[in-house]
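Regression check, S-adenosylmethionine case 231:
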Amino acid sequence: MPCSCCAPSSINDLDCTFDAASAAKEAKRFLKRGAVRRTLRLIRPLLALPTPLASVLDIGCGAGAAHHELLRRGAAMLAVGVDVSAGYITAAASNSHLLGLREQTMYHQLDFALHAAQFEPAAAVIMDRVICCYPDLGQLLGAAAERSTRFLALSFPRNNWWVRRIGRAINSVSVVGRSSYRFFIHPEPEVLRVVRAAGLLPVESCTFGAWHLVTFARPAAPAAVPPLQSS
Ligand SMILES: C[S@@+](CC[C@H](N)C(=O)[O-])C[C@H]1O[C@@H](n2cnc3c(N)ncnc32)[C@H](O)[C@@H]1O
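Current build output:
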């Protein structure tokens, strides 16, 4: 149900659920203490690359922690942040300015699943705790994976009894608060199937609390066949 503070309402009530107050709090926390440990663990394989990524597409970027960390450590050259939430896009852009990264960042407030075609492919796509906010896994994750030329760093909730219990609690709070927001635990095999269908393979994975953290990579194109030598 649309809430009174957001008009028009975004899908799954995202713009209202991820509001300006929580965005400002997260942005402030990042300036003080940097990215949280889960995000640092998710981007670790990207931080370890021998050369900086030419571009990063951070989908559902929130206050921007993942791409700000990559940029300020010199592991990426440019970043595009996308989020449905106006509050989070404002917070991410403000932190980008405060961190001196304005020249290296661009932001878009929109539903990526509906507007994916307008984005250039990026060397790495990041989705940290995003697919759990979106009902249509194939539409969002499929489009995101297709935009990656090299890597996809993805975190999503584990499907075990205690994470399901947390999910039910979040959804009950939403119902009581008359929000249409719902938390989704998409099954891991389905997540892997969608990403594989876009041509990416898992190269590293671990769990971190309630989350699966998986890095996918696009297999390198086979080397061109050398021309036949004429004798
Ligand atoms: C739980 S927050 C995570 C934010 C950030 N990635 C982090 O880990 O701190 C999920 C974010 O994804 C955004 N989001 C969810 N679905 C989206 C979509 N289809 N397009 C753009 N943003 C989306 C929400 O608005 C929200 O800001």
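Comparison notes: Residues 14, 18, 59-62, 65, 82-85, 88, 111-113, 128-130, 133-134, 140 surround S-adenosylmethionine (CB under 6 Å). The two ends are 75 Å apart (CA to CA). No diff flagged against the previous build.
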